[in-house]
Amino acid sequence: MSTLAERYESVSAEVAEAISACGRARSEVELIVISKNHGAALVRELHTLGHRHFGENRDQEAKPKAEETSDLPGLVWHFVGQLQSNKTKSALSYTNVLHSIDRASLVSSLKRELQGRSERLGGFIQLNLTDDPGRGGIEPKHLSEFASTVLELDSFDLLGVMGVAALDRDPRIDFETIASASAELQRLEPKARYISAGMSHDFKQAIEFGATHLRIGTAITGKRNL
Ligand SMILES: *Cc1c(COP(=O)(O)O)cnc(C)c1O
């Protein structure tokens, strides 16, 4: 059995290798450790190793964890799961970057909560890469129209697009779709050039297709135990 520190070092090395293999700079890519289903102790241990970016997908779990670790300097919290509108206020109390802006009703609740706020929120528009319109996320063909409403938010920086590749096919198909959506978004807002893509099993392919924010859970944290 490997330890958390060993898995962290080995995944970090694989990430660095994949980045240099495609001629990119390590500084272009942020590794976010998805700490869901693990307690605050995991965040503390990785912080000791120098890690600062963590991601969560449920407010009920993330909020107490962020509170328990609020003494740690420099932590950056990424919210990557579907956010219910009635949890927006709670999630914004600790979230620095929201990766899952996936529908108009969330934009409405963000509009209310961000109005007049001094601290800025960063965010990604989540794409729906499946054929099922019922799944979360914006269909690529509606991206520009949706992005123009997101760009009107106060105290908000649109960073780019986010996607989760389908499990039942080559992830490069979806990463290519995300990369073209990103190019389209940058024609509307050149600053929104970041791409949140790549998880434990597909981060190498995501890096090849320009991912700038990797969301890696189990490869580092091991089996989830909560
Ligand atoms: C859980 C989760 C991840 C991390 O998944 P792993 O396969 O454990 O790396 C990434 N993105 C989202 C949206 C998640 O919910």
Which H/E pattern describes the elements? HEHEHEHEHEHEHEHEH
* Tally of DSSP β-strands: 8
The order of strands across the largest sheet is 7-6-5-4-3-2-1-8
**Helix content range of the residues, please?**
25-40%
Mean of the pLDDT scores? 96
Can you count the helices?
A: 9
Main sheet specs:
8 strands, parallel
Bound molecules: pyridoxal-5'-phosphate
Rg, alpha carbons: 17 Å
Structural overview:
The protein has 226 residues and is an alpha/beta fold. The chain has nine helices and eight strands. It has an eight-stranded parallel β-sheet with strand order 7-6-5-4-3-2-1-8. Helix 2 (40-48) links the parallel strand 1 (30-34) and strand 2 (53-56). Helix 6 crosses helix 7. The longest helix is centred in the first third of the chain and has 18 residues, at 4-21. The radius of gyration is 17 Å and the shape is globular. The model has no long low-confidence stretch (mean pLDDT 96). Pyridoxal-5'-phosphate binds at residues 34, 36, 57, 80-81, 164, 199-200, 215-219. Pyridoxal-5'-phosphate (PLP) is lined by residues 34, 36, 57, 80-81, 164, 199-200, 215-219.
Write a brief structural summary:
By secondary structure, this protein is of the alpha/beta class. The chain contains 9 helices and 8 strands.
What features would you highlight for this structure?
226 residues, binds pyridoxal-5'-phosphate, alpha/beta, eight-stranded parallel β-sheet
